[in-house]
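anyone else get weird line breaks when pasting these?? whatever heres mine. first is seq + tokens for prot A
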Amino acid sequence: ISVGKIADVNDAITNGGGFAYYPEGRMWITNYPSSSLEKARAVYSPPELAGMEAGVIALYQKCVHLGCRVPSCPTSQWFECGCHGSQYNRVGEKKGGPAPRGMDHFPLEFAPSGDVTVNTGIIAQGRPIGTNTTGQEAEGPHCVGASEH
């Protein structure tokens, strides 16, 4: 799915309060901090890293616990599932609740023209519990339940 140029994607993230939702791909795109790339390289595969190295990550909207759509929480700057309370940081790494791992995500491709494509035909399984490449804690009150963090 084409999502435009990287500048368009970054504008959508900014305009969305840190989260850009693309319903046609059933996905969220958020910023991936460049300061976390070293940790990410030890955990993620090269196809997954392409987006992170460009400063973004595409996350499948589906909670890996029981399949509910996971909304963003503007106050905590996390994803928080209202069905059973699973919580994920801004880049989809599990922070709390019953989910067995982090959110699944999609690889991004960058054309020489600057166009960004998200390959929704490939689902990269979310990382195991305990993965925390960004160190991002909740940045404000949670939208769903209370976290153990």
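and prot B, same format (seq, then tokens)
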Amino acid sequence: MGEGTVPVLMKDDGTPYKTAILIPTINNADELDIVLGRLGKQTYPHFELVISDSKSRDHTREVCERHGATWIEDPSRNRADACNFALSQMDHDLVLFTDDDTVPPLDWVAKLVRWFDNPEVGAVGGPNFAPDDDPFGAKCADVAFCTKFMTAGTRYGAQPKGELVPITHNPGVNCAHRMANLREVGFFEEGCIGAEDVVLDAKIQRAGHKLFIDPSNVMPHRRRRPFKPYMKQMRNYGYTRMVANKRWPEIATWSHTAIGFFPALVALALSAMLFGGLTGGAAADLWFKLDGDWTASRVAFHIPLGLVSAYIAICWLGAAIGTSPHRSVGTVFLAPLFVFLAQWAYGQGVIKAWREIRRTGGRAGEGNQIDDRIRTA
């Protein structure tokens, strides 16, 4: 597989690294066809394409056969188990991971594999942005994901300075691991319904191996369109990340907990403004001035309004200086809306996770994959 315009990476014993690309998929044959077509034209030669198919009901198998990919029928109900089912049957030295809705650059494999001549590199990845042919709404989502401030906790648009930079997590849509390390940690966490790539990276680092990012190796990855698919994805992200944080506390950050209070704070702010507006706090002579009496009504209306204005301004600034290649007047202007929707939905997911954790404790976050695919497995 691959057209072979760059040399194969060799091991110390003079034999080439045996390399594979693993893609879990379900019911997404048409977009998978695009992915496999691009991977078949890679500049790096001699790698195997492995598709772990969770009982798709479309023409996924035919697409795999047409592109010469190894098709594995997977009986699992989630992405982590689908990857594990395939990994347990593979004997490669290096495993690259991506999704079935990407547009791989033709040098993607070569730019990942090259770093494994350094024995300190346990895994390497890169950023991902929306492809150029994504619709406007998806590009707005990309800008929101990649803002400097409001969604800075995401790794999608991480582009630190340097050629190879240490990092704590690479999204599973654009990363490569040494198979020996994957075997050492027992592959992905069994039954993980989301955030499985975050947990895997935590396990890899816990075992003493180092992760890096190559900021130049960008993977175009399709974004969910507004508004229902976009918000459903963000709600799922909040839920799966919090249940993962419960089981692996070392991957948790303060922002994951804080965002759970966002919906309540929004409701409180709107209630205060409504009270202030109905009781005279929004009178015309009270705008754009600090003097005069700051009654309860005036405080209730103008303080939340000021915070909302600051929120919008920070969103605009963060989007304007963010990393998304799709920044434009339109996408930056709409950034506050998309950031707000993302934080609202993510917060709802966190709240759902809190409720489930109280009921089930450490068993939360196991079972069927949480995403917006039609799952038949």
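btw re prot B: The beta strands are 19-25, 47-53, 70-73, 94-97, 121-125, 128-129, 165-166, 175-178, 210-213, 219-220. Residues 19-134+156-222 form a domain with the Spore Coat Polysaccharide Biosynthesis Protein SpsA; Chain A fold (CATH 3.90.550.10).
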